Amino acid sequence: MKPVIVTALYDIGRDKWEKFTQSYGGYIHWMERTLSLDSEMVIYTQERFREEIIEYRKKYDPTLTKTILIVQELEDLDAYKMFYSDLESLMSSDEFKLKVSFPDVPEMSKPLYNIIMFNKLDFIKRAKDVGFFKSDFIIWADAGGLREDISNYVGKKWPDLDKINGLDNNKITFFSHSQDFNIDNAEFHAMSQIRYIQGTAFCVPSHMIDFLHEEFHKTVDECIDNGYIGSDEKIFDLTYVKDKSKYHLIKCTWREYFNILE
């Protein structure tokens, strides 16, 4: 298989949140770890981050032959157009607020946070549809997902092709806190802080992307229609239990995905 990494960085006002704040200077500092990999990479971002991302990436890919950077503003994202108005209405409603046990977490109070998380599937679908680098296997990797010293990542050819070729090409691979799980109450799960599948990174054979894209969006619509919502990880959890045969779960802790595919 021929893998490509897809990642993104967007300003959703996190540096101004009351809680769970993060400066974008700090986030790009984390992102440099991903940018330092010797890998073909598709990066989505806004105009405000374009030059800084290119500057960092050129340190490791001087001619940008392994880099495609796409500028697309937040309001132009598919998830924004599809879900923002409904999410804003839902999160601001009295009915929703009465259900929320953790009102400060961003997935319950910041619609733009959910928009960026939910757009991961649109980012990878576009990469597949356009055929960037003629890849047939896409790895989503959060821009700030790698946090160890940068020397652990610089110049590494990641993922290891033997590891990728060892995966089932007819299944979507998620990294998960549990090897398997069931969900008895979708609303309770979505609104809780329980999560199994990790949204930080996941692997999708190109021929499975349309399926995952459609099923993920169906789950988001179902949640909103029924008056609840959760993070992308909850949406992945709820999507997984509908048809477990389409997925392969690798049990691991947070951020272990890099070492597993190294």
Note the main attributes of this structure.
262 residues, alpha/beta, seven-stranded mixed β-sheet, 12 helices, 7 strands
What does this structure look like?
It is a single chain. The chain has 262 residues and is an alpha/beta fold. Helices cover 42% and strands 16% of the residues. The chain contains twelve helices and seven strands. A seven-stranded mixed β-sheet has the order 3-2-1-4-6-5-7, with helices on both faces. α1 links the parallel β1 and β2. The longest helix is centred in the last third of the chain and has 17 residues. 40% of the residues are buried.
Short description:
Helices cover 42% and strands 16% of the residues. With 262 residues, it is α/β, with parallel strands linked by helices.
Gyration radius, rounded: 18 Å
Termini gap: 15 Å
The average pLDDT is 94
List SSEs in N-to-C order.
EHEHEHHHHHEHEHEHHEH
* Main sheet properties: 7 strands, mixed
Identify low-pLDDT runs. 19-23
Structural class designation: alpha/beta
Question: DSSP helix count?
Answer: 12
